[in-house]
Amino acid sequence: MQGIKIRKIGCITFGQPRVGNRSLARLLDDLIPSYIRVVFERDAITGQPGIPILFKHAGSEIVVDDKGNCIPKPSFIEKTFMGSKTHFGNHSMTKYLQAFKSNIALLNSMTYTL
User: Are strands 60-64 and 34-40 parallel, antiparallel or unpaired?
Assistant: First the structure.
C-alpha cells in the first residue's frame, strides 16, 4: 500500500461471527492494530460459520460472562471450560450490556491496597 496514507484506527465489535478467510483476517489485523472482538461466553453466533478452516476471526478476543468475568485472549483450555455456545438468545446487546454491568460491579466490590 505504498503512497497511501493510513491513519491508525481501532475497532471493537460485539458478537461478531467469522466474516472472512485467513487472508482477510491478516489484512484486518495489519490495518487495524487495535481490533477487539468482545464475545459473550455462550453466544452461538460468534462461532459461525462453523467451518474454521475456511473462515477466520480477526482481532483479539475478549470473553465476558454474566458473572462479571472478563478473559482477554482466552487459551484453548480456558475456552474448554466455558459454557456451551448453543444459545442463539445470547446474541443480544442486552446480554453484552449485562456482562459489562456485572464486570463493573465486580470491580467496584474489590478492595485495592497499595
Answer: parallel
